[in-house]
Write a structure and sequence with these properties.
Helix content: 25-40%
CATH superfamily of the largest domain: HAD superfamily/HAD-like
Strand order of the largest sheet: 3-2-1-4-5-6
Number of strands: 6
Strand content: 5-15%
Bound molecules: magnesium ion
CATH class of the largest domain: Alpha Beta
CATH architecture of the largest domain: 3-Layer(aba) Sandwich
Number of domains: 2
Structural class: alpha/beta
C-alpha cells in the first residue's frame, strides 16, 4: 500500500508545543486539550493573532518539537512490512530546512527527502490511505481516511464523513495489522 501521512499533529507534537511555547513566551496558561478550533489564536484571546502566528516562524520553535508516542516505530514497521510511506505536509517554506533536518529526519531517520510531498492540496495526491488530523485534508480525497484525534477535531463526526478515527499510533498499528510497536 501507499500510505500518506501528515506531519504536524499526526507524527509530531507541533500544536501542543506551540501552545506551551506561547505560554512560556507570554506568561499565559492555555491548555492544549482545551483547544476547540483549528485556529490556535482563538485559544489566546488575550494575545494578538500576530503574536501567536509569529511563533512557528522561529527556528528554535521547531528544534523543540518531538515525535508522538509510537509514530516512528509504527512508520518504520510499515516500511519494513513493504508499504510505501510518504509524508504529505502543508509545511511553510520559511522554516522548512530546520523542520526537515531537526525534526523529520532526526526522529524518523528511515525517511528521506524523496519521501516528502509538500502541498496544501492533499486531495491531488494518490495513495491508498491518508492519516491526518485535518478534516479538510481528508474530505474529498480518493484515499481511505484515518482521522487522527486531536483536540480541535474531537467533536467532528468522523463516521458520518466516511472516516475512521484513530486516537494514537497503537490504533494505527492495529489498523494495519502490525505487531505492537
Ligand atoms: Mg496536521
Amino acid at each position: 500500500m501507499t500510505i500518506l501521512v501528515d506531519m504536524d499533529d499526526t507524527i509530531v507534537n507541533s500544536t501542543a508545543r506551540w501552545v506551551d511555547y506561547a505560554n512560556h513566551r507570554y506568561g499565559t496558561a492555555v491548555r492544549y486539550d482545551d483547544l476547540r478550533d483549528w485556529n490556535v489564536a482563538l485559544a489566546f484571546p488575550m494575545l494578538t493573532k500576530e503574536q501567536i502566528y509569529a511563533l512557528p516562524y522561529e527556528e528554535d520553535f521547531w528544534r523543540s518539537i518531538t515525535p508522538l508516542p509510537g509514530a516512528a516505530e509504527t512508520l518504520s514497521a510499515l516500511k519494513e512490512a513493504g508499504h510505501r510511506v510518504l509524508i504529505v505536509t502543508n509545511s511553510h517554506y520559511v522554516c522548512l530546512k530546520v523542520k526537515m533536518e531537526e525534526v523529520l529526519f532526526r526522529y524518523f531517520p528511515f525517511l528521506t527527502w524523496d519521501d516528502v510531498i509538500l502541498t496544501s492540496q492533499k486531495q491531488l495526491i494518490r495513495g491508498d490511505v491518508l492519516i491526518d488530523d485535518g478534516v479538510q485534508n481528508l474530505v474529498g480525497g480518493d484515499y481511505e481516511k484515518l482521522l487522527f484525534t486531536q483536540p480541535h477535531n474531537r467533536s467532528f463526526d468522523a463516521v458520518s464523513a466516511g472516516m475512521t478515527r484513530v486516537a494514537d499510533w497503537r490504533e494505527i498499528a492495529a489498523y494495519f495489522h502490525l505487531q505492537e510497536p
